[in-house]
Structure formats: structure tokens, C-alpha cells
Amino acid sequence: MSTSPARAATGRGTVPPPHRGRGPARRDRDRRAVVLPARPGTPRVQGPPPSVAVIGGGIAGLAAATALAERGVAVTLYEKESYLGGRAGGWPTELRDGTPVTMSRGFHAFFRQYYNLRALLRRTDPALERLTGLPDYPLLHACGLRDSFRHVPRTPPFSALGFVALSPSFRLRDLPAMNPGAALPLLDVRVPEVYDRLDATSAHDFLDTLRFPRSARHLAFEVFSRSFFADPRHLSAAEMALMFHIYFLGSSEGLLFDVPDAPYPTALWHPLATHLGGHGARVRTGTAVQHVAPTPDGGHTVATDHDELRYDAVVLALDTGGLRSLVQRSAEVGDTLWRERIARLRIAPPFLVTRLWLDRPVAPERPGFLGTSGFGSLDNVSVLERWEDEAARWSARTGGSVVELHAYAVPPDATREVEQKLLLDQLHRVYPETRTAAVLDARHVWRDDCPLFPVGGHTDRPTVRTPHPGLVVAGDLVRTDLPVALMERAATTGFLAANTLLERWGVRGHPLKTVPDRGRSPLLRALATASSTRSRRPPRTPSSTADAL
Q: 229: phi > 0 → left, psi -120 to 50 → alpha, else beta; which?
């Protein structure tokens, strides 16, 4: 990777924007990744195209709309916001000095295990040239311990062993106190079996049984659990174990990741909207759906404040609150059991994203992204001009830095102004040079719309299929028997929802790809099996994307 713009700075106005297109993105390196072929069918819709309403323009909705439109389906995409991308979206704003900039809900890591999300992005960027890799994934604890994934081997089990060997948070004298037997389930994580084994336990309690060193626990596990925007005490241990499998013992893609080299709308979603338009899809941003109702002929009506239209099928690609609300307003959708389960879905605590435009740069050795632990509510710090062209141009013109702070799982009763001030104080602890920097402008984004995966909540989560054959659900809240999470779960379930509808019409779906669906080592799998004291369902490998529902 070339020298970051901030490292190249020698004075005001000398920082060039990041170089776009650093060569083709690295190809998938894990030969054990699982490819799920789609059900066979005709290449495209034959005859008059069926019509589908996709409700929600986040990653799941965009994946579903793209997969359907490419097969000749007449797609209308509804999104209540004025922008696409959902939680990875962005919108225009203007700084005090009149500079137009793009604001977003914060940093997202595009891990190289996100095969289906990256396949979606390749529709408009075949070599993924609009993604650039960060050289490290550093983690810092308030006690001074620092971990890094830069030199950790990527091939399991050497990835986990290498992290332990290289990490200062693991000490030899701590190892005898650990409980290796309790960790054995992590050696062979499978879905849905992992939920049978661990969904009744919280991530916090599971870590207690492992007796991990406290500092290692913060850095190696709680950083991941908080990526679900949840306190580990309220997060299912099954979700944390799945994350451990995806990033450590189940995949050889490693822990390093890519980020867009421009704001999300420019790099990702505007090109995809153009792609959808080229396939005849209609994109209706700024349009909230108020009601959905089944029709006697098997279709559905979709009502907004402006019109009511009939469609042959509907994809519900909403966040948790949006799905609950729309189902509540749509009394004829689903059966009683399904509606009760939707009503019980929970939302994670609020989170805060603070973006600061500072009048001077942070120290040149600061990484583009830093995960933190022990600094109060601060969970990570990003320095945007390290990779984003818009921030780099502002930095070059002013000599300052654009810094972003995240606080996950903020107490719901917290006072916002106080939390924003505390977050700035914590930045000063992490990067002391920012104490003397003037804040030229700031934006604070509060949201509480992420799904919570609580202890024992797995069975309440909806699957792609619903009681109506022409109604499917997609999103990162959806339950699916595949080893996916976060943005990758959103993209994967979007494709699965589209494939379910395409199968109804005899049209070939889209293949999918995931990390290996079980532990990679036969010996480790045997150890994990021997440790289980509960009966488990026989493991299976889905033979197609339809089987993965």
C-alpha cells in the first residue's frame, strides 16, 4: 500500500487526495470457501415480467433488487430516506465554511470474507478498484496494551495461534488458568447447530467460562461483540462464536479489510443505482411504504402516502424497527405466529457517531482505523483522510484532519450532549495531540435501529420465507443457516430472497459463496464433538441457495 496522504504531508495544502485504483483487488484466497449453486432455470424471465416491490434500499434491498432486475423482473425499490445504502449510506451536508461534504453513519470494514457483498459491488466495479485496503487492524486498550492483526497468519488454526503468540495481552502465566474445554465449541462452529449449543448463553458469560485474561478478553472478543452494537451481557454467545469462526478459525482470508476510497454514495451506491436503472428497475428514494396487503390472486398491494400499486411479490428489506412497524400496520400480512415473532424482535441500544473537522492534523503515525477498549464509551477512532478522497481534499486545503469517533451500546437514558463531550475527552486520551486542536466543525449522528441478537432470541428471528409464498424477508436481522454476519448477512439474505422468488417463476437464481460451514481441521472437529454434552442435529452442507433458507 502506498504512503497515506497524511504521512506525506509536509505543510498546509501539501496533502494529495488518495490515489484511486491501487490495482485489482486481491482475489479470494480461501480454497475451502463453500460455493452454493443456485437452482437451475431459464436465464431470464420468459414472457411478461413479474413485478416485485423491494421495500428498503439498504444492502439487503439493493442485493435483492439487483438479483431480480438482472433476470428480467420488473423491480420497484422503495426507500424512505433520500439516499441508498441503509446503515452504509451517506447524505450531503455543508460545513460552516461552506464546504459541501458527505456525512454518514460511520466507518464500515469491508472484510475479504464478505464474498456476496463484494459480488454485489463487482456489478459496477469488477476489480473492486474503489475499495482500498488498510494496512492494519490495530486494537488499543486503555492500560497501554496494543494488538495488531497485520502480521497474524491468515490460515487457520495458525491465525488464532499466531494472534495469541504475537499479542501482548496474552501472557504465558495466564494460560494455565484458562479453561480449554469450554473453548472447544469454537473449534467447530456450524450453523444452525451453534445456536442449539450457545444461544441460551450470553457472550459475557461464555467468556467467563473460558477464563480468558481480562485484557485479552477485551481486545480479542469484546471488540467483536460490540460490533453488533450490543453489550456482551445481552448478546447471544452463538453470534460471538460465529464471528470467531468467520474471522479466525473458519476462514483464511484474515482480519484485514478494505474501505471505500470515496464516500459511500459516490463509491458504491450511485453506480449501483445506475446499474439498476440500466436493467429497468425503478428506484423511489424518499418514499416510505405505509401498508402492505395480500391480494386474492396471490400478489400484494403496496401503499405509500402518494399511491397504491399491486405487485406479484414483495421483498421486505427493512431494519428491525421498520419491519416491526410495517407488519403492525399491515394486519393481513403473515399468520399469527409469524406476526408475534416479528413483534418480539428487539433493537440494540443507541449508538453515536461523531465526526470532527480539526484545524490541525493528527500525528502522522496514527492509523486510519483504531479499535479501542477501556476508554469509556469510545469504541474506535478513524482518520478519514488516510483513505477517503473527499476528506483528503479537505485536509490538503486546510492542513487539518477529519476524525470520526464511534460509541456503541450507549445507555438509552444517556444525555446526548454529555455523551458527545465524553467522546471528545476520550479522543484526547487516545490521541493527546488533539487536545490543542480546534474543532472547526462537528456532526453527531445518533441512531437506534440496529438489530439486537439477545440471549435465546434466535428462534424468533424471521427466515427469508414467510407464510406468503410471494412475500420474503431480507436483512442482517434474518435467520439463515449460513455462516454470515453483519453486512455480509444483509447481502446474502438479499440474494436468497431474490432466488426464492426466481425459483417460483422457473428462473435461474444467483450462486452464493460463504466461508467454510464447519471447522476446518478434522482433529479439532473431533475434539469439539467430544466436548458436546448435548445432542445436535446432523450437520449438512446446503446443496443450493434454496436449501440455505
A: left
